[in-house]
Write a structure and sequence with these properties.
2 copies of one chain form a homodimer. The first copy, chain A, is mainly α. Chain A is built from 6 helices and 3 strands. Chain A folds into 2 domains: about 80 residues, Winged helix-like DNA-binding domain superfamily/Winged helix DNA-binding domain (Arc Repressor Mutant, subunit A), CATH 1.10.10.10; about 60 residues, no CATH class. Chain A is elongated, with a radius of gyration of 23 Å. Chain A binds a DNA duplex through helix 4.
Amino acid sequence: MKPPSEKSAGRRPSRPSYEPLQPHEIELADFFVRMAGILGVPRSVAEIYALLYVSTGPVDFDHIQGRLGISKGSVSQGLKFLRDHEMILSVKEPGSRRERWQPTPSLAASLVALLRSQVLPALEQAQPGLQRVLADAQARGSQPEVIERLSRLNRWNSRALELAPLLLPPPGA
Amino acid sequence: MKPPSEKSAGRRPSRPSYEPLQPHEIELADFFVRMAGILGVPRSVAEIYALLYVSTGPVDFDHIQGRLGISKGSVSQGLKFLRDHEMILSVKEPGSRRERWQPTPSLAASLVALLRSQVLPALEQAQPGLQRVLADAQARGSQPEVIERLSRLNRWNSRALELAPLLLPPPGA
DNA sequence: GCCTAAGTTCAAAAATTATTGAAACTTCAG
DNA sequence: CTGAAGTTTCAATAATTTTTGAACTTAGGC
C-alpha cells in the first residue's frame, strides 16, 4: 500500500516511502530486542540487527531508516555499535559511495564477542582491587568465612581472565 | 565523625548513626555494581549484596539502610530482588521480629539462577513466534540463506530450552 | 578541484528506569 | 487485644539512557 504515484519512471524519488515492518519481521525484532535488553543493548540497535537478519540481501542506510522509522542519528549510531562489535559487514556498491549492510555469518561469534567486550574490561579493572580487598580482610583478621568468600572471588576472577582469550581471540586471528 | 553525643550508655539510640562504607568495601561494591550492570541489575541491589558479602555476620535492615545511605524503599526492594533470586538468606533473631541477612553460600549458583530467570522466559515466549517466522519465510520462498539463518536460530532456541533445566533445576530440587 | 550524496556528531528532548518517602500493612511481644 | 517495630507499597521525583534532528564533516563522482 504505497502512496499513489512514484512520479513515473526512475526519477529521483524525493522521499521514497518504505514499508513498515511486516508482522513476521516484527516478531523477530521483538525477540532480538528482548535478548539485547538482557545485555543492555538499546532497542534501536536490536531492531537494526533484526532487519538485516531477515532481509534477503544487504540493506542500505536509507532503507534501515525508512523501514524502521527511526532517525538518521539512531541508524548511524546503531550501525556503529554493530560494526564495532563485528556483528555486521558492509558491501560497497560499484559506482556509489553508499554502503549496504548484512549480518556477520555467525551470530554465535557475535554474541560471544559482545559479552567479552562487556565482561572482560570489568574483570581486568577489578583484578587489583579485589586482591587488595582480600589482603585487607586478611590483615584485619576478618572472620574466616569472609576471607574464604573473598578468596574464591579472586580465584574466579583470575580463572575467568585466563579463560577469556581462549573463548575468542582478540581482534586479529 | 559522628554527630556528637549518643545520649550516654545503652539508651535506645533514637537515630543510631552508621559508618559509611570503608574504602575496601567500596572497592568490592564497585565490582559488584559493574558486574550487575551488565545484567541490568540496579546499583542499589548490587550494593546491598556487596555489603552482605564483605560483612562478617548477618546484617539487618537498618544497618543496610544506614551504611549504604539509601532509602527504606530501596532496601526493601533490593532485599526482595535478592530474595526472589535466592541470592540471600535470612536468619531470625530469637526474641525479635527483625530479620538479618547473609549471602547464599554459592555466588555461582546465584548468578546462574539470575541469568536463567532473565533468559529463560524470553526463550520460552519466543519459541512459537520464531517457528512462525521460519514457516513464513519458507512459505514465501525466501532466499535459502535467510531460511538457513532462521532455522539455526530455531535450533538454538530449542537446544537452549532443553539444556536449561539441566543447568539448574527450577525451585525445588 | 568542486559539489553534493552519504554519513557522523552532539546538544537538547523524550523515554525509560531507579530511588525516595510517606502512608499502609503485618506481625508479634507484652 | 493492642501498640508499635519492622517491612512493604507505590505515586511522585530524580537520575539515567536513548532518540532525535539540525549542523557539520568527508569522500568520491563528475
